[in-house]
Amino acid sequence: MAPEQIKNVILDILTDIAPDEDLTDLKDEVNFRDQLELDSMDFLDIVMELRKRYKVNVPEQDYPELASMFSTVNYLTPKMVDCVAS
Amino acid sequence: MSDNQPYDTIIIGAGMSGLAAGIRLAHYDQRVCILERHYTIGGLNSFYRVNGRNYDVGLHAVTNFTQKGTKKGPLARILRQLRFKYDDFALAPQKGSRIAFPDHELRFSNELDLLRSEVKKVFPGQVDNFEALVAKIADYDDLDQAAFEISGRQVLSDTISDPLLIEMILCPLMWYGNAAEHDMAWGQFCIMFRSIFLEGFARPYKGVRLILKHLVKRFRGLGGELKLRKGVKTIHVENEQAVCVELDNGEQLTGKRILSSAGRLETMRMCSDTSELDPRLAGQLTFIESISVLDREPSSIGNDDTIVFYNDSEKFHWERPADELCDTRTGVVCSPNNYVYADEEGQLADGVVRITTIADYDRWAGLSEEEYQREKLRWYDRSVAASVKYTPDFRPYVIDTDLFTPTTINRFTWHDNGAVYGSPDKVLDGRTHLNNLFLCGTDQGFVGIIGAMMSGISMANMHCLRG
pTM (2 decimals)? Predict the structure, then answer.
């Protein structure tokens, strides 16, 4: 999966977690936490959705990598290279 | 899938907490079964139909209400965790509520500033102390068991110097979520203060049904199994593990873990390895609810209050009745018409006033059928007569009535003594003596509709989804 597709996967997960949130102005470089006020339960959900949908495991020590869209896509690109977009 | 394959999680009880937990687990592909002893869902927050009219059991108000777009707080959290939209619950905010004591009253609404200004007006010397209390509540950390258990009355008397203001603040908070008599754990106090004064009251036009309908539809849509009229008789324990549950009808179901919303004592009693149970774990506080259907809207007779919490003296008595079936010194008046429903929904079909009064389970349970029917009529009259000192007298306009009692509550919740808020001893981490049996719901410490869902979600996340 290419970085642009991974970004779409994350957007899809965020839409699922926070359906009332407008994600059109989401900035790639800014922390999710500052833009969406996600809490620790929500971050755990992003991790679990990745595992559910793409069998990607994000170990607990890597959670900080999921801070922003930019860092998340960077982190996931090598891990999801073999994943197929659904 | 074969029937012999164990469930990933078996959930006991199809109330708000069990259903919310079930959704979380089924969403993450667990094989989940919810077992409910009653013939309907909802537990304390259920509903029933009599004489062609729909009634809610527990619901006066959905507490923890916050406006659409609010990202913090339990309501926003449960919506995200359960993947619902804000509008799915169609919450209509309250008009405004009151705490009514003799010669003193405090109005409050979903904006803390109203209560602030009322405190300033009625207790001018307590303004700074009240702010100090609000600051202490903001600092309270939710899951700290030691801080949870300190005496709420102690913290209050250290902070506020007018005993009447203390009683008036405690009255609604105890009424809407205190399982213990007399005093309230500081943690429970903070949870209730936030959910009522810092957040607020709302109600779906269609009542609790609407929320339950969404929960069940979602749970089943995710492949979850819901079995009604399936009470768990025994949780069989081997080598300090819960291995299977045996139902009232003898059927056995196996699960890798069990999440029980049945209550702390009630769950322990099911376990095959427990012999002695501490009776002090049983809650003692239960209610009757006197429901009056009016031929007009409450507002047309001058009642614009959503909820009134009343007490007939300067000291608030939160205890089991000493020598009668009920104690009418304190009570709650709920007028479900007095929510700001959306224009397209309009007003409820009937005018309704609900009065809640403290009752004694043993005395109600000990009545013969004939006595029971007679006492229902007698206590309807007495509870309503006590309430109309604090709300415009609605008795001339009553066209239908219903009254439910502690034995009704016991039937819906299966709680010992029909204890509405369960055991006075809460288990915040939901752990039991077995490493694959956990508690959620009332006895885990969160109460109210949103709180119950939060309990199911957080216990499912903590104990059933990790690893």
Answer: 0.93
A21 to chain B nearest CA, in Å?
Answer: 8
Phi/psi for B223 (5° steps) reads: 95, 5
Rounded-to-integer distance, Cα A41 and Cα B410, Å: 34
**Which among B71, B81, B86 has the least Cβ separation from residue A41?**
B81
The alpha helices in B317-465, defined as continuous H runs, are: 361-365, 369-387, 406-413, 448-459
- The residue ranges of every structural domain in chain B are 7-64+208-281+424-464, 97-199, 284-413
A21 contacts A36 by C-beta, under 8 angstroms: yes
- Interface mutation target, options A48, A51, A60, chain B, most CBs of B under 10 Å: A48
CATH topology of domain A3-79: 1.10.1200
> Is the separation of the CB atoms in A17 and A25 below 8 Å?
no
Domain boundaries, chain A: 3-79
pLDDT tier, B424 (very low <50, low <70, confident <90, very high otherwise): very high
**Per-residue model confidence (pLDDT) at position A33:** 85
A42–B contact, CB cutoff 8 A: yes
What per-residue confidence (pLDDT) applies to B455? 96
Q: Is B48 left (phi over 0), alpha (psi -120 to 50) or beta?
A: beta
Calculate what percentage of chain A has a pLDDT beyond 70: 99
Which pLDDT belongs to residue A53?
93
Q: Does A37 touch chain B (CB under 8 A)?
A: yes
Query: What chain B residue is nearest to A59 in terms of C-alpha separation?
Result: B467
**Token code pair at residue B262:** 């049945």
Give per-residue pLDDT as tens, B53-83. Answer: 888 888 889 999 999 988 889 999 999 999 9
Q: Give this complex's ipTM.
A: 0.86
Is it the case that residue B3 has pLDDT exceeding 60?
Answer: no
Average pLDDT over residues B387-410: 96
Q: Classify domain B7-64+208-281+424-464 by CATH architecture.
A: 3-Layer(bba) Sandwich (3.50)
Average pLDDT in the B87-111 region?
97
Count H helices and E strands in chain A, helices first. 4, 0
Q: In a mutagenesis test of the B interface, which of A41, A44, A46 is the best target, namely the one with the most B β-carbons within 10 Å?
A: A41
CA distance B309 to B307: 7
Q: Is the pLDDT score of B44 beyond 90?
A: no
A20 and B CB contact within 8 Å: yes
Cβ of B80 within 8 Å of Cβ of A18? The answer is: yes
Q: Quote the percentage of chain B above a pLDDT of 90.
A: 87
The larger pLDDT score, comparing residue B217 to residue B277, is at B217
Nearest CA in chain A to B82: A17
Q: By CA distance, what is A57's nearest residue in B?
A: B467
A36–B77 C-beta distance less than 8 A: no
- Nearest CB neighbour to A20, from listed B28, B86, B465: B86
What chain B residue is nearest to A14 in terms of C-alpha separation? B80
Give the CA-trace dihedral at B118, B124, B125, B129, to 10 degrees: 30
